[in-house]
Specification:
The chain contains ten helices and 15 strands. The protein is α/β, with parallel strands linked by helices. The strands form two sheets. Strands 14-13-12-11-7-10-9-8-15 form a nine-stranded mixed β-sheet. Strands 3-2-1-4-5-6 form a six-stranded parallel β-sheet, with helices on both faces. The radius of gyration is 21 Å and the shape is globular.
């Protein structure tokens, strides 16, 4: 008999109903969804019925008072994360919270402290770390197949037109636009693959849409080892026209992935490895370079995320999730530094 962690969801619409519940919690081998909560009673009742006549609530405190629930997934607008995470921690529920972690570093730090004080685990929804192809890239880097790393690029875009009431288009509710919503995933992936960022420069713009957050962001990264990186995130490029690329370059070649950044668990990837070089400006045709198509059996990134976090809860006090609260704080620090750079026109050091 498989032992399962009993889950509740705070914020049952949006990404929870589109992805994390059906693709993550429901199929996970070590998780069971028992209750959902949303302030919209009509919506939460519909979600509860959709996944098997679950218990449903319209207030956080009622869900958190449900004694059967051991872990909660918080999928609400960013400005609510801090308050709801503190409530959950004090109710002794383990927490998987959507990103970004909070509106401010002070809020994020308090979330970590209160979770530690109440001996509950805290993780954030950076599910792209669990993508089979992205994990393969990390493995190939560790094996030294690219030689000395030189540069990385991560791209994530979508078409996100003005929508009445959309909290991601409202600065006090979401904290920003394409950078904090999608660029934060890209920054996390590059740090995870290439080490800590030490300096950042950023440009943001509103080029297409009229809402008061950026629809365009480009970030230049300097890593501690001297590696350089580029992140571009947009709310104004049609979905079918964007390739959502992850590219890693080194002294022995490159890994080029397409579609491994985003909400999908699929994608494709090639590696071009050059063990020998012909010399400066020596003619070398592309077909002479060893090109390897990497084909993997993929696992759903949301299921992998839920199973990782549930596994840590079941394993006991020393087990930590692949993405920790400290990782979320680190990511928020870099994103906020990027906004500072965009505002001041100066590079910002990351400490």
């Amino acid at each position: 008999m498989t032992v399962s962690v009993k889950w509740g969801v705070i914020g049952a619409g949006g990404i929870a109903d589109r992805r994390t519940i059906p693709e993550g919690i429901m199929p996970a081998e070590n998780a069971e969804l028992v209750a959902v909560m949303d302030v919209d009673e009509g919506r939460v009742k519909q979600v509860a019925q959709k996944y098997g006549d679950l218990r449903y609530y319209t207030r956080e405190e009622n869900l958190l008072g449900d004694k059967e629930i051991e872990a909660v997934y918080i999928a609400t607008p960013t400005y609510l994360h801090h308050r709801q995470a503190l409530m959950a921690a004090k109710a002794r529920k383990h927490i998987l919270c959507e990103k970004p972690m909070a509106m401010t570093l002070k809020e994020a730090e308090e979330m970590i402290t209160v979770c530690q004080d109440n001996k509950v685990r805290l993780s954030l929804g950076y599910m792209m770390r669990y993508h089979s192809y992205n994990r393969k890239i990390k493995e190939m880097i560790a094996e030294g197949r690219l030689g000395t790393l030189v540069m990385g690029r991560a791209q994530l875009t979508c078409w996100y037109p003005p929508i009445e009431g959309a909290w991601r288009q409202n600065p006090p509710l979401g904290g920003g636009g394409s950078l904090v919503d999608m660029g934060s995933h890209c920054i996390d992936l590059l740090e995870w693959l290439m080490g800590p960022v030490t300096e950042i420069s950023c440009f943001t713009s509103r080029l297409v849409h009229s809402y008061p957050v950026e629809d365009t962001a480009t970030v230049l990264l300097r890593f501690g080892s001297g590696i350089q990186g580029l992140v571009d995130s947009h709310f104004n490029i049609p979905d079918a026209s964007s390739e959502n690329r992850l590219e890693i370059y080194g002294s022995k070649g490159s890994i080029l992935a397409q579609g491994t950044i985003g909400q999908s668990s699929t994608g494709k990837m090639i590696a071009r490895i050059e063990e020998e070089h012909k010399g400066y400006q020596a003619e070398q045709k592309r077909e002479e370079v060893k090109e390897e198509a990497i084909v993997l059996e993929t696992k759903n990134i949301y299921q992998a995320e839920i199973e990782n976090f549930s596994g840590c809860i079941l394993q006991g006090k020393d087990a930590q999730p692949s993405f920790t609260g400290e990782d979320g704080l680190r990511n928020l620090k870099i994103v906020l530094a990027a906004y500072e750079s965009a505002k001041t026109g100066r590079a910002v050091a990351i400490r």
